[in-house]
Amino acid sequence: MSLLEVENLRTYFYTESGIVQAVDGVSFEVDRGETLGLVGESGAGKSVTVKSLLGLVNSPGKVVDGSVRFDGRDLTECSERELRREVRGSEISFVFQDPMTALNPVFTVGNQIAEIVEYHTDATESEAYDRAIELLDDVGIPDPEQRVDQYPHEFSGGMRQRVLIAMALSCNPKLIIADEPTTALDVTIQAQILDLFDEIQAKYDTAIVYVTHDLGVVREVCNRVAVMYLGKVVEHAPYEELYRNPKHPYTQSLLRSVVRPDERVDNLNPIEGTMPSAIDPPSGCRFRTRCPVAVDDCARIEPPRLDVGPDHDSACILYEEGYGTDEPRLHQRGKP
Ligand SMILES: Nc1ncnc2c1ncn2[C@@H]1O[C@H](COP(=O)(O)OP(=O)(O)OP(=O)(O)O)[C@@H](O)[C@H]1O
Ligand code: NI
């Protein structure tokens, strides 16, 4: 049994302009100690998906369907109090994009880490303080004995993100959910934080769900990847397999838009068009309006996630028998 099993998750926002189908039937699994990348363009539903796991979606949003089994327990059945007391921050913790909003400017970082430790464990105040120093050391902050008594504004952006990671690790979580944790950082610092995630994984054997719009980042940290488009998972595979053998036309486009060191910038192929609204998404396959290989049936049939390789599935009907091809690759552009 996997550590986390998300099945058919649906989260909608009931707005004045209509029902936003932000997450619409998403399923994935995360094993103990592995890193799953959740990838897709802005608006794909990545953040809403991870917030839904822990009851963090606020009105007008609502989880309307699906189950979230974590370590044998269905989190969608838990009360807010149970989630706060027994799950969030202890069993599962979050690292967000912007450390400044997650840190309280008027308390020292040591105080903030110790507070979490005290809330979730029976550590005394001085034990929690010592644990804070240890954690700052673990995430690569130099002079932790001095730094522990400093305030968030005394840290650089990269160091603040390390503090957040220390907070996330404070109760030895089984799962860390990281939502674009390096997006606000410059490239060098970003690489250091990605290395840190690798080290954490090796040392603590924590599972990670890593949300990003950047497949290059995924390559650094993820074992497996689920690619999202407009509220759905369109492809899922181990990273190496996805990278070498992408099957869904959307994934193929995404991979072509990744900047590679060996590629000149004018050779990049950004995906044409913009993602349609999640209020009135296209019928059938949601990617068909931008898909270079779409056929008439794509408007009629909602593609199921079809097995296309070992631990690899893709939601594209062109892999269904009878469509005459099992390779709907982009070079077919222009062919009938
Ligand atoms: N509070 C809200 N009210 C209405 N719609 C919302 C709300 N929050 C999110 N949405 C909608 O849900 C959809 C998914 O948003 P989400 O933030 O999950 O995207 P994302 O994949 O995380 O994108 P990004 O890469 O920009 O963070 C979008 O269409 C968004 O507009
Ligand atoms: Ni997001």
From TrEMBL:
Entry annotated with the keyword Iron-sulfur: no
Superkingdom of source: Archaea
A GO molecular-function descriptor: ATP hydrolysis activity
CDD domains hit by this protein: ABC_NikE_OppD_transporters
InterPro entries the record matches: AAA+_ATPase (IPR003593), ABC_Ni/Peptide_Import (IPR050388), ABC_transporter-like_ATP-bd (IPR003439), ABC_transporter-like_CS (IPR017871), Oligopep_ABC_C (IPR013563), P-loop_NTPase (IPR027417)
SUPFAM superfamilies cross-referenced by the UniProt entry: P-loop containing nucleoside triphosphate hydrolases
Coiled-coil ranges from the UniProt annotation: none
PROSITE patterns: ABC_TRANSPORTER_1 (PS00211), ABC_TRANSPORTER_2 (PS50893)
Reaction equation(s) it catalyzes: Ni(2+)(out) + ATP + H2O = Ni(2+)(in) + ADP + phosphate + H(+)
Topology term for the membrane: Peripheral membrane protein
Keyword Ion transport annotated: yes
Gene Ontology, cellular component aspect: plasma membrane
Major localization class: membrane
NCBIfam families: oligo_HPY
Record protein name field: Nickel import system ATP-binding protein NikD
